[in-house]
Design a protein that fits this description.
single chain, mainly beta, Jelly Rolls, 7-stranded antiparallel β-sheet, globular, binds (2S)-amino(carbamoylamino)ethanoic acid, binds manganese (II) ion
Length: 264
């Protein structure tokens, strides 16, 4: 059952007090627990519920959406929308066909980066529903660099990198790090309990963050928020940010970041 499907039975109460919740939308950040993200239906998708997380109405320069496919769900034929896509399988099995290549099956943790203009067909596989995260962005080319290639991979193949020598904190890069053909990164940041950043960050790049595991406290601007698995955070440019993992297990989140481009 998806969290947003929870309906209290007569005599049963929804957890939490009526009118109180963890969601917060401000000019430079948003915290959106999954249960409040309402359903949309899209012309290019059949038997699929779209739950939009980030997009231009929020102030974001990219889109992030969770696509909940029924067993019969998927794209309405071949889609070629001119955007870059990063598809990440959250649940179930997904069949993806890129241009005129053979279809591939993607399991949870499987992902695909499609450069702008790559035609694709997506469907739930195995007669079961599936959940897919889609990060989309218009491409900003860089003079002297080719367009990025298609990537089809799985989290299992990614190296856990420790960029600054801190024990208990790692990065997994879904696309090659520092490769100027790409204008955005998606990384998985993992934290052992209690291991946190050295400083509060403030930077020009924005983020879309999906909590994958664990829990913690997130500082956004001047506010501390408790965050759990399934939560989404948008951080706008220059939003001060800091994560302090809590609980007894590892915490991990997937993080979109626009990178590798100069000011326009
Ligand atoms: O790379 C980053 O900007 C990252 N450390 N930010 C974050 O996790 N909020
Ligand atoms: Mn950051």
């Amino acid at each position: 059952m998806f969290p947003s499907d929870f309906q209290p039975a007569p005599g049963q109460f929804r957890p939490g007090a009526i009118g109180h919740g963890r969601c917060r939308v401000t000019p430079n950040y948003a915290l959106m627990p999954p249960e409040g993200v309402m359903d949309s239906y899209l012309p290019q998708w059949v038997d699929t519920t779209a739950r939009f997380l980030a997009g231009p109405p929020l102030g974001a320069c990219f889109g992030q959406v969770i696509l909940e496919m029924e067993a019969t769900g998927g794209t309405r034929g071949h889609v070629q929308d001119g955007l870059q896509h990063l598809f990440w399988v959250l649940e179930g099995v997904v069949t993806l066909t890129v241009d005129d290549h053979d279809p591939v099956e993607m399991t949870p943790g499987g992902y695909a980066f499609l450069p702008a203009g790559t035609g694709h067909t997506v469907s739930a596989a195995g007669g079961a529903p599936a959940r897919l995260m889609d990060i989309r962005k218009p491409y900003v080319p860089a003079e002297g660099f080719d367009a990025p290639p298609v990537i089809l991979s799985h989290r299992d193949t990614l190296e856990k990198i420790n960029h600054n020598g801190t024990i208990g904190r790692t990065w997994e890069h879904l696309m090659p790090y520092g490769d100027m053909r790409f204008d955005f990164e998606v990384n998985i940041l993992s934290f052992e309990p209690g291991v946190h950043f050295p400083d509060i960050e403030t930077h020009i790049m924005e983020h879309g963050l999906l909590m994958l595991e664990g829990q913690g406290l997130y500082l956004l601007d001047r506010d501390w928020h408790e965050v759990w698995e399934g939560d989404f955070i948008w951080m706008g440019p220059y939003c001060p940010q800091f994560f302090y993992p809590t609980g007894w297990t590892r915490s991990a989140y997937m993080l979109y970041k626009n990178v590798n481009r100069d000011l326009d």
